[in-house]
């Protein structure tokens, strides 16, 4: 009861006019930051961090500035789905998986259904995470501490196991796509020795590696644009979308088709989010993969399955709250965005860690209360703006395609301020287009690039410390995860071999 009382007191503070106003402004700003390709929550929070000093001077404390930044964070997580669905360009890395089924729905004239599903799934995922955060913060923080390098690699291996189901029935092409993505993720300097590796033709632009957003925007921005032009040569518009009360009500009622994906994404996302250095992007990708594996109709994924929209959106919003937990209870950021928030808390004179809840309750509980308030505000704002988002789909494609191209260029340059990455993004876009023409799945390659930089150091540091692979089968947490991953990797391969033998 003490926790419930403290939570209601925190919500009361979060609903004070100044704090509520900051939450609304933060959500709206975050929504458009998240929808803009190349920005996302990290850049949005970092850009707006200096503005919080003005808020602090006005309000006289650290609570209101943190509420504002948390609202930006929430809005950005919601906003990432907008351009993924409407334009096929991931607004942020956390929304890449939303593109897999959100874009096909938009091309079928069901963008309003996809946007409605994404908004509600995001709300449910964040709400589940908020409840878990409120009730079990100390316990979950101790669980996260038990995850060392063996457990992290086992979890990444499980994620790779889900990739086998993302490439369709052609298992060899899927494996090739994964290996290709892993190779690209290794470009740059070796994380252990510092030696350069796979720096093609000694071009110095590759020394920092091939960044994920370069591939995501290239494949799902430029590549999608080229694919649409090729597939719809005689169409002048993207799709016709009629928005009225009946269509929105029907879209709301269809959310029941996405309950499984929402449930899996909500709980899995929070668990992945609390792990240090994981974050919302791996959570959304794993949520999508596991939901597809658990589906009765996995063949519908990639063609417009509502579960394929709900799972990543529930997961990335749940993970964004989960990433706050190690930041506040342990002083360890759970994602790049929470690393920026952690810096802000230190600047404001706070000391994140085990004593924060006992020594700074006047800061902690209003902040947790603002999670609930900002989540509700984000849902309302997102649903209200759906007609505006759908306006983009009514434009002739002859107008929309150059807009997509310019947004891809500007988004890539805004993210890295580097023209080499812009040219590489365009090249990747053409590569992604030709992969689709040759019927090679691009999703496993993109997902491998995300998890490769997490899995590699975990594996190498584990082997350096324990000097044996058996450690993955002897530790109580790592062992069952590793065994499950191996089984899930072998099953599609055996299925493919049996199909070939039966022919």
Task: Describe what you observe in this structure.
With 503 residues, the protein is mainly alpha-helical. It has one domain (2-502). Helices cover 74% and strands 1% of the residues. It has 24 helices and two strands. Strands 1-2 form a two-stranded antiparallel sheet. 52% of the residues are buried.
Order of strands in the sheet with most strands: 1-2
Largest sheet features? 2 strands, antiparallel
What is the strand content? under 5%
Report Rg.
Answer: 22 Å
Tally of separate domains = 1
Global outline: globular
Mean pLDDT: 79
Number of strands: 2
What's the N-to-C terminus distance?
Answer: 64 Å
Structural class: mainly alpha
Spell out the helices and strands N to C. Answer: HHHHHHHHHEEHHHHHHHHHHHHHHH
Q: Roughly how much helix do the residues carry, as a percent range?
A: over 70%
Low-confidence runs of at least 5 consecutive residues: none
Task: Give the number of helices.
Answer: 24
Write the layout of secondary structure elements.
Elements: H1 2-14, H2 17-35, H3 40-48, H4 51-59, H5 63-86, H6 96-107, H7 111-145, H8 149-163, H9 171-185, E1 188-189, E2 196-197, H10 212-231, H11 245-253, H12 259-273, H13 280-294, H14 306-322, H15 324-329, H16 336-347, H17 356-359, H18 361-384, H19 386-391, H20 397-416, H21 419-437, H22 443-466, H23 471-474, H24 478-502
Antiparallel strand pairs: 1-2
Helix pairs in contact: 1-18, 2-3, 2-5, 2-18, 3-5, 3-16, 4-5, 5-6, 5-7, 5-14, 5-16, 5-18, 6-7, 6-14, 7-11, 7-12, 7-14, 7-18, 8-22, 8-24, 9-22, 10-20, 10-21, 12-13, 12-14, 13-14, 20-21
């Amino acid at each position: 009861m003490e926790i419930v009382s403290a939570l209601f007191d925190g919500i009361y503070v979060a609903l004070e006019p100044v704090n509520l106003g900051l939450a609304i402004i933060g959500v709206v700003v975050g929504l458009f930051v998240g929808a803009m390709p190349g920005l996302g929550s990290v850049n949005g929070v970092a850009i707006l961090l200096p503005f919080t000093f003005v808020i602090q001077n006005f309000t006289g404390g650290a609570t209101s500035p943190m509420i504002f930044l948390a609202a930006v964070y929430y809005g950005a997580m919601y906003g990432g789905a907008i351009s993924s669905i409407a334009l096929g360009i991931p607004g942020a890395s956390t929304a890449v998986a939303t593109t897999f089924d959100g874009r096909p729905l938009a091309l079928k004239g069901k963008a309003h259904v996809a946007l409605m599903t994404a908004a509600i799934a995001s709300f449910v995922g964040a709400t589940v995470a908020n409840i878990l955060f409120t009730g079990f913060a100390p316990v979950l923080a101790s669980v996260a501490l038990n995850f060392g390098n063996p457990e992290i690699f086992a979890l990444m291996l499980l994620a790779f196991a889900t990739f086998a189901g993302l490439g369709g029935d052609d298992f060899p092409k899927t494996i090739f796509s994964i290996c290709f993505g892993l190779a690209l993720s290794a470009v740059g300097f070796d994380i252990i020795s510092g030696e350069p590796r796979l720096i093609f033709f000694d071009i110095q632009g590759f020394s920092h590696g091939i960044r994920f957003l370069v591939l995501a925007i290239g494949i799902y921005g430029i590549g999608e644009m080229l694919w649409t032009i090729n597939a719809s040569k005689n169409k002048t518009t993207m799709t016709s979308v009629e928005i009225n009360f009946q269509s929105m009500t029907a879209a709301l009622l269809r959310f029941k088709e996405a309950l499984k994906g929402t449930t899996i994404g909500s709980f899995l996302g929070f668990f992945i989010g609390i792990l240090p250095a994981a974050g919302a992007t791996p959570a959304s990708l794993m949520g999508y993969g596991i939901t597809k594996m658990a589906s009765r109709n996995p063949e519908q994924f990639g063609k417009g399955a509502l579960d394929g929209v709900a799972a990543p959106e529930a997961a990335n919003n749940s993970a964004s709250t989960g990433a706050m937990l190690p930041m506040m209870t342990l002083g360890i950021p759970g994602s790049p965005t929470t690393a920026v928030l952690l810096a802000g808390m230190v600047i404001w004179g706070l000391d994140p860690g085990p004593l924060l809840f006992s020594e700074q309750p006047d800061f902690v509980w209003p902040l947790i209360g603002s999670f609930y308030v900002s989540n509700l505000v984000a849902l309302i704002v997102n649903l209200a703006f759906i007609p505006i988002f759908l306006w983009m789909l009514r434009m002739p494609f002859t107008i929309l395609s150059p807009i997509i191209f310019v947004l891809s260029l500007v988004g890539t340059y805004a993210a890295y301020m580097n023209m080499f990455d812009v040219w590489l993004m365009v090249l990747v876009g053409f590569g992604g287009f030709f992969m689709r023409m040759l019927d090679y799945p691009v999703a496993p390659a993109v997902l491998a690039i995300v998890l490769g930089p997490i899995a590699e150091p975990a594996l190498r540091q584990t082997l350096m410390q324990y000097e044996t692979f058996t450690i993955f089968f002897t530790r109580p947490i790592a062992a069952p995860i590793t065994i499950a991953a191996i089984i899930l990797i072998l099953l599609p391969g055996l299925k493919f071999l049996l199909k070939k033998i039966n022919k």
